[in-house]
Amino acid sequence: MADELELLRRANPVPVDGPHFGDGPLDHHAERHLNRLLHERPSPVRRRTRLAWGLAATTVVAALVSALLFTGQTTAPAIAAPRPLLVRADSTPVSLETLAERARAAAADGAPKLRKGTHVQAWSMGMSDDKPPITLPEERIVRWHADDSHTEIVVATDPRHPGRPVLSGEGELVEDGHVLSRQTYPPSWSDAPPQSPPPTDVTRLRAYLQEAGYSKTPLNIGELLDAVASLLDTWTLGARESATLARLLADTEGLRPLGQVTDRLGRRGQAYVYDGPGARRMLIMDPVTGAVLGLETTFTKAEPEYGVKAGDVMSYSAWMR
Amino acid sequence: MSNDEIFAAAYREHYWAVSRYVARRLDGRTSEVEEVVAEVFTVAWRRRADLPAAPLPWLYGVARNCLANAVRGYGRRRRLVDRLGNDETAHGRQIVDSPDTEAPGAWVHEALNRLSPADREVLRLTAWEELAVEEVAVALGCGRRAAAMRLHRARRRLRAEIDRMSPPTVSKERSHG
């Protein structure tokens, strides 16, 4: 029998040649962080608001919410947790196959074009150890400049409650539209997905998303949807890219058409769901162009210990042009 | 080279090794690894004047401290993720079995988990990060002799746990040689 160190060596859960974290060039996240360290005064690492499922732990915020709830604030802040989207009962589901065909037809003239940068409104649930979870609404705009530098602006706002104060991820109640951060990043030389332009060929797009999802093995559907979100957090797709993505999704098993919804920005879309363990992912797509409009993740079972009920929205992103 | 250039070179060279170190200790939960690694290099950047000529064991030492904080801070979220069971690694999919069918993967992990955190770390640094005793000493912030002693004791205790829980086939194999 091999000695104990050899046995342990064989049980290495993340070997150098495994599917994740293998040696190679830095990915864009790593490049971006290095750029930031070298060119800016580093601040404490800011927890991403949308973590695995948008569960950002912010004890301070939760404490603040309690304070607000019990002190009778005169202007009701926009802190109510959004309800999940409702599918219209009388609507007929459109298959992804049909939608992919529509998207292909809509892309015939090639307009609109692909643009680097994004405009997204997101709601994500924050958790703390001893307070109920709360929802943080943020709008994020990323614009790229001619010299390959880019500016990211994050604003606290909830379009469902214009003008009302909003909770920010930093733990303060701020005015609607308050700029939480505005950063300009120096030119990045990373050309790894999702920093590189998305291809307009289904096979290549699938490989691109797999790389964007840090995986050396094909993505399962949950991972695929995460990778789609990271693509849309980086690029504003053109008609051709949207049509390719719609085709890829139509060729992927596991997304079920549900019917028509009106998203949180008031746009009409078709909903496609994937029921994973403990959570449901709902993709909202434009019924005419096939463009992905949003992605919603909801809990499908209650987690009383965490203050979570079945149907609570964990995270929601709505992408705009 | 300036401190900044030395840091950038170390970052590029060791980013993935540090990521693997962190992933191994977060059971490969990819969603959290990147965040902890960012913190490791942020701390390392602040201390870049201390960066030794062979920086990797030192970076592991920084990562060890960051992980301790991360584990404290993220405990709640991780428990929820585990409970929902949507994390592939929670099901052990990332455990790599050895080629033979008597693969030790899961039960070796179990044996390891029965040891103290200090024993576990010195063993993992040796077996998974493949550090020599001198490097283990840097990562743990102790002297070489102390590191060698810790490793020796930890190996003995791991051996005892493995013997206690070995599947019959393995015991049999062992009795033959």
TrEMBL record, chain B:
RNA polymerase sigma-70 region domain ranges (all copies): 20-76
Protein name: Sigma-70 family RNA polymerase sigma factor
BP GO annotations: DNA-templated transcription initiation
A Gene Ontology molecular function term of the record: DNA binding
Keyword annotations of the record: Sigma factor, Transcription, Transcription regulation
Start and end residues of each RNA polymerase sigma factor 70 region 4 type domain: 107-158
Organism: Streptomyces viridochromogenes
Family affiliation: Belongs to the sigma-70 factor family. ECF subfamily.
InterPro entries to which the protein is assigned, alphabetical: RNA_pol_sigma-70-like (IPR039425), RNA_pol_sigma-70_dom (IPR014284), RNA_pol_sigma70_r2 (IPR007627), RNA_pol_sigma70_r4_t2 (IPR013249), RNA_pol_sigma_r2 (IPR013325), RNA_pol_sigma_r3/r4-like (IPR013324), WH-like_DNA-bd_sf (IPR036388)
NCBIfam families, per the entry: sigma70-ECF
